[in-house]
Structures are given as C-alpha cells and as structure tokens.
Amino acid sequence: MKVGIMGGTFDPIHLAHLIIAEEAVCKLGLDRVVFIPASHPWMKSDHKITSTDHRLAMVKLAINANPSFHVSGIELERSGPTYTVDTLEQLWKELGYAASMYLLVGWDSLLDMPKWKAPLRISKMATIVTFPRPGYEKPDITSLEADIPGLSERLVMLDEPFIGISSTAIRRKIASGESIRYMVPETVRQYIADNRLYGSL
Questions:
Q1: What is the pLDDT of residues 81-105, one digit of tens each?
Q2: Domain at 2-164, CATH homologous superfamily
C-alpha cells in the first residue's frame, strides 16, 4: 500500500491542500492520503491555534467527497508537542512495515526539515514529496544533503500545482469581512460562518 501523509494545523483546511493531495494521488499512484491535524506543533508554539475539535471537523467536511482521502486524529490524541518522526513511527506500526509512506510537504517545510526532530530517520521511513509554496524559492537539495545525507534519493519534487492560497490569508480575509468563497470547500465556509470562527459574523 502506498500512503500519502499530509500533516498541518489546517486552520482552516483549504482548496490548495486538497488539490495538492489529489495531485500526489494521480502523479505517484497513492492508494490514499491521510490528513493529520497537528495538536501542538512545536514550530508554532507561539501562535494561537483554533481548537482541535473545530479543525478536525473542518478536515472531515473538506475530504468527505473523496474516497482516497482519510483523516487521522493520531496527533490530537498525543499530549505535549507533536513531532513528525513520532507520528510516522506510529503510523508505520499501524499500517504494517510493508506499507510505503509518502510525506507531503511544501518547499517551506522542506527548507526547515534539518531543524526537525530526527530528520534523517524521517527520510528513511518515508519518501519526501515536496511541492511549491508561494513566496518560497525551490530548495537547494545539495545544501539540504549536508544536514540530511541521502535525502535526494528519497525525494520527489513536484513543480506544480502552484496555488496562492494560505490559511493565514483566509483568516485575515474573514477577520476583515471579506469573502473566502472558492478558497475553501463550501461545507468548510459554512462551518466557519456557523461557528463564527476567525472573527466571522
């Protein structure tokens, strides 16, 4: 089984997340993509994050129509900071060691990967699939190899899709009373409005 892993705060999940996941399914022949909302991402410890219940609910609404998409609360059940290496270790045991894992990350996250907990272990457990992020240049793999030896052999670089949507921009638009229609699934837009998230009225 080939399983894509897409982690994130998903605050909120938006169409770029879904399009990237679908692109990975089509390009890499993945059997499924598992969306994993983070509980307490250590690199965003100074950020205010919406409650886990709301973020999990929005992910479920967003992926409901795609049978290749699944969601896991594996990190929400863990206390303290969440680390990708711990999540992959647990998933590997649950999926079976014969499963192939593909970690989907943006260019920005790949650039930060040397700062992660046990990045070499991560690259040995999963193929790293990286995709463009607005505002970031394509990472220099040679430079990353110095910190994560052998990374290039476990790396797939997708040059598309390039989508200028971010959760930060969505939150700002909502707080300013602007429309986010067509930036998130309609079910998610309605959920945000119904629950008055991000300063919505």
A1: 889 999 999 999 999 888 999 999 9
A2: HUPs (3.40.50.620)
